[in-house]
Write a structure and sequence with these properties.
The complex is a heterodimer of chains A (about 575) and B (about 300).
Chain A (H helix, E strand, L loop, with lengths): L7 H21 L5 E4 L3 H9 L4 H26 L13 E6 L15 H15 L5 E6 L4 E6 L2 H10 L17 E7 L12 E4 L7 E10 L7 E9 L5 E7 L2 E7 L4 E7 L6 E9 L9 E6 L5 E6 L4 H9 L3 E6 L12 E5 L11 E4 L3 H6 L6 E4 L3 E3 L19 E4 L7 E7 L2 E7 L5 E4 L14 H13 L5 E4 L1 E5 L5 E4 L8 E4 L2 E6 L3 E7 L2 E8 L2 H4 L16 H4 L1 H22 L5
Parallel strand pairs in A: 2-3, 2-5, 5-6, 14-15, 14-16, 16-17, 17-23, 24-30
Antiparallel strand pairs in A: 3-4, 7-8, 8-11, 9-10, 9-12, 12-13, 18-20, 19-21, 21-22, 22-23, 25-28, 26-29, 27-28, 29-30
Helix pairs in contact in A: 1-3, 3-11, 4-5
Chain B lengths: L1 H11 L3 H8 L14 E10 L3 E7 L11 H7 L3 E9 L2 E7 L10 H19 L3 E7 L3 E8 L5 H10 L8 H9 L7 E6 L7 H10 L3 E8 L1 H4 L5 E7 L5 E6 L1 H24 L3 E6 L4 H11 L5
Parallel strand pairs in B: 4-5, 4-7, 7-8, 8-11
Antiparallel strand pairs in B: 1-3, 2-3, 5-6, 9-10
The chains are: A alpha/beta (about 575), B alpha/beta (about 300).
């Protein structure tokens, strides 16, 4: 309970003072009017007859005093504007958590965004506090923007500089001791506040049509053909018309509520590199998903030389890979860089190790020694443990369940190698970046069930992309983007200055608030990242606050307790008036 | 009399027509009292009136002119003819001058004065001996017995000189009044009968002296149904006694009941002792009270 945001002591002092004043006024109140009557003969007779009620007559004054005191206490309580502040009690602390998810940029019917309304609500909350109150500002990005402070000008300054950021919503850790915690949100991000949090809703239904999927992929059967998937969803509650612009194409759409437009287009003629799609819809309230980006990869096929004697499964997979020109070479035949972008060997090694990127499966310690791993030793039935799941080679791949009958372990991986899989403390698979990219597995394909794994073709594709130096692009939603490259430089493919990054546990994190294609480079490693809005964020009407089943504080209801106290005092005043005029009270 | 009528019209608002009507009225006494002067009222005593009453044996010293010679011839006895002597009626008018009569701008007191004046005029016109007395805790003023309409001016002046004040003590006032010898007659008490000691004690004084008592009970609607509400301090107009009362509907109902019981008790007392009782609401016009109400109560004929 707070007294105008200060503490309970002033409330006690005010109540005591008011009680004293009421009691004093009760006893010094004006005397009853004097009325002269002809005689008291009959009045005394009447009063004598009513003697049995004398106890009640005496109680009337006491009841009246109690009613007056009760009214006073209720009014004092209402003036104190009591509000629940959670489990703890403190001198007026307010923790304001603002939902900074991208859907807060949705425009409301009045033309202002939900974020603008959220700022208004925040300022109202701050205005209700007393100057001695401590206010904390945090956002659902999980960061405490401003710790508890009594400097309200700093609080307002901070609020003015807050802005929605794409990304998932997470309720930040907030010191709730003695604080009233208020979350201002539209509810779309699904932020789950802790119990006792006051949720202020700024949700309002809105019209939105958005591009929920846009991607370009190679046609497997043809080395130079691409196709694009485009998907547009109407998240509105009304039928809407829209115009979709694509590279060299345009679509007129008319979508019913909830309807999804999907089309696969031939993208063979689209230029390589970054491309975009744009959507225009009347009354669209959420602009962030009206644009999407994709990356058209280089259309030249990768030339692979597979040393004869490899696993049949491996040979089959390579033969099915799109944009791969596979040639089977004899172990004795030299592999030249001009003829092959990479070579692959499984068990049987070429006579001489070419200076070309390679994918090697071998448990032969001699071969491993020739590849630079002299300390290799055989091992039977090792238990695999994936060490570097974020490496481009391991994207979409799970090798933890692979059973290996016979292998060799590498005691020293080398400075330029990244261990992908281990068997105990020793490495079992690794990727070498310099001087020539090589992926080495210390077991043969047929000595394991790797080829039967569903991830096997994916891994082989990852390996070819990595060895050929043409990485397949990553798709990430807008917001905070992490790439598995340490200390990477990130820039937009379309040009411009490098974007700001920060390291995070061996990865590099950067913020992407708009759809774009980025390239992250760390040494010889390179990663393309296509950033588009999250389809989940496009459904700006999917909020629990829209159904009214979540607490939604209104200006009147948020301070409901003092309203109830005021109503209570008015009811008692009415009852006192009623009883007074019937002489039940004095 | 014209002067008296003019004064009455000025001071007591009696117009000439009303006074003329009064002259046709006279006070009815349920008993026959002995008067001092021959008047227009029969007395028990036999005297020199016009109406034959009886015979009696002649005794020496009787006026021989009254011997009935026809009876002597027929009966051979000397008989004296007796005639009923018409005597005046002693009327005592007591006007309550206590402060309770002056409540609410004195309408009850004024009304009582008018009633007293009218009755007095009736009595004087009948050649009755009318004695007027104003009383509160005691008799505050007295106009000795007056007789004849020519005295009405003096009566009006006396009534006009009465000033209300003091508390009601009917018993002490009447005892003081009767301490000197008074012939028995009609005692008319014009009062609200709100005597703290009880109206019975006062009326008992007259009852013990065998007066024919008529109680004219002046009531008002504001007395019966007081327009009071809220918590009040009631102050007795006579004694200045105070009483704090929270006026509730139940209290008001109880008071109205007490007022009604008070009137009923007074009426029952008068009926029990063959007194006249004339409840007179002051809201009805004064002329109606005299010409209708009192006649209906057989106080006037």
């Amino acid at each position: 309970m707070t007294l105008l945001g200060v503490s309970g002591w002033p409330l006690v002092m005010l109540a005591a003072t008011a009680t004293t004043a009421v009691v004093w006024l009760f006893f010094i109140r004006p005397r009853h009017p004097v009325v002269v009557v002809p005689s008291l003969v009959l009045w005394r007779r009447v009063l004598a007859e009513r003697k049995p009620d004398s106890l009640i007559e005496r109680l009337r004054r006491l009841v009246s005093l109690l009613i007056a005191l009760l009214m006073t206490w209720l009014l004092v309580g209402a003036l104190a504007r009591p509000e629940r502040t959670g489990r703890g009690r403190g001198p007026g602390r307010l923790a304001l958590v603002l939902d900074t998810s991208s859907t807060m940029l949705t425009r409301a019917a009045d033309g202002r965004t939900r974020w603008d309304h959220a700022l208004d609500e925040a300022r109202r909350e701050i205005a209700r506090t007393s100057p001695a109150s401590e206010v904390l500002i945090a956002d659902t990005g999980g960061r405490a923007i401003l710790p508890y402070t009594t400097d309200l000008s700093l609080v307002r300054w901070t609020l003015d500089r807050l802005a929605p950021r794409p990304g998932s919503g997470v309720f930040p850790p907030v010191d709730r001791a003695g604080a009233r915690v208020v979350l201002i949100t539209d509810g779309v991000a699904g932020v789950t506040p802790p119990a006792g949090t006051t949720v202020v809703s700024v949700f309002e239904p809105a019209i939105n049509l958005g591009i929920t999927r846009f991607a370009v992929r190679a046609v497997r059967a043809e080395s130079t053909s691409d196709e694009a998937d485009i998907e547009v969803t109407n998240f509105s509650r009304v039928r809407r018309q829209a115009r979709l612009e694509l590279p060299g194409a345009e679509r007129r759409l008319q979508l019913a509520p909830g309807e999804i437009f999907h089309e696969t287009l031939d993208a063979s003629e689209w230029p390589e590199g970054e491309i975009g799609a744009r959507l225009e819809a009347d009354g669209d309230a959420y602009p962030l998903d009206d644009e999407a980006r994709a990356y058209v990869p280089r259309r030249r096929a990768v030339r692979l030389a597979l040393v004869r004697g490899a696993s049949r499964a491996l040979e089959t997979v390579l033969g099915l890979m799109p944009r791969v020109e596979l040639s089977i070479v004899e172990p004795t035949s030299p592999i030249r860089r001009e003829a092959a972008d990479a070579w692959i060997a499984d068990g049987v090694m070429p006579a001489s190790i070419p200076d070309v990127p390679a994918l090697v499966f071998t448990s032969n310690t001699g071969t491993l020694a020739a590849l630079g791993f002299g300390a290799a030793r055989p091992v039977a039935a090792p238990v695999l443990d994936v060490r570097d799941a974020d490496h481009p080679l391991m994207r979409g791949v799970a090798l933890g369940d692979v059973q290996v009958a016979r292998a060799a372990v590498l005691e020293h991986a080398g400075a330029d190698a990244r261990v992908l899989v281990t068997a105990g403390p020793a490495a079992l698979a690794l990727a070498i970046g310099r001087p020539v990219r090589r992926v080495v597995f210390a077991f043969e394909v047929d000595d394991s069930d790797l080829a039967t794994q569903r991830a096997f073709p994916v891994f082989i594709q990852n390996a070819i992309d990595w060895l050929a130096g043409e990485p397949s692009s990553l798709s990430r939603p807008t917001g905070e983007v992490a790439v598995s490259l340490p200390d990477a430089r990130v820039r937009a493919v379309a040009g411009g200055a490098p974007v700001g990054t920060r390291p995070l546990l061996g990865a590099t994190v950067f913020d992407a608030e708009r759809p774009a294609v980025f390239v992250a480079e760390s040494g010889t490693l390179r990663q393309l990242v296509v950033v588009n809005p999250s389809p989940a964020a496009s459904d700006v009407n999917r909020s629990p606050l829209a159904r009214g089943d979540a607490r939604r504080d209104r200006p009147g209801a948020r301070s409901g307790l003092w309203v109830y106290l005021l109503l209570g005092s008015l009811v008692i005043a009415g009852a006192e008036w009623w009883t007074y005029h019937r002489r039940l009270t004095v | 009399v014209p002067d008296a009528q003019a004064l009455a019209a000025d001071e007591l608002l009696f117009d000439a027509a009303f006074l003329k009507k009064l002259e046709y009225l006279h006070v009815v006494s349920r008993r026959v009292f002995a008067g001092h002067f021959r008047a227009e009222r029969r007395a028990r005593t036999r005297g020199s009136g016009q109406e034959f009453a009886d015979h009696r044996e002649y005794t020496p010293g009787d006026d021989f002119r009254r011997i009935d010679w026809l009876a002597y011839q027929r009966l051979e006895r000397l008989l004296i003819r007796l005639f009923e002597e018409e005597q005046d009626l002693p009327i005592y008018l007591f006007v309550d001058c206590s402060r309770s009569m002056t409540h609410d701008n004195r309408p009850r007191f004024q009304y009582g004065l008018k009633v007293a004046a009218a009755l007095c005029y009736i009595g004087l016109a009948e050649l009755d001996r009318v004695t007027l007395a104003g009383y509160a805790e005691r008799v505050v003023a007295e106009l000795p017995a007056q007789r004849g309409k020519a005295r009405i001016l003096k009566v009006f002046r006396f009534l006009g000189s009465l000033e209300p004040g003091g508390a009601t003590d009917t018993r002490e006032a009447l005892r003081g009044f009767c301490a000197v010898h008074r012939s028995r007659g009609i005692s008319v008490i014009i009062s609200d009968f709100l005597d703290p000691a009880g109206f019975e004690r006062g009326l008992d004084v007259l009852r013990s002296l065998q007066h024919d008592v008529v109680a004219i009970h002046l009531t008002s609607r504001t007395d019966a149904v007081p327009d009071l509400r809220g918590d009040l301090v009631l102050v007795d107009a006579e004694t200045s006694g105070r009483c704090e009362v929270g006026i509730t509907p139940a209290i008001l109902a109880a008071y109205e009941r007490a007022h009604r019981v008070h009137s009923e008790e007074l009426a029952a007392y008068c009926w029990r002792h063959r007194f006249g009782y004339l409840p007179t609401p002051i809201e009805i016009p004064f002329e109606d009270a005299i010409l209708k109400l009192f006649r209906q109560g057989r106080f006037l004929t």
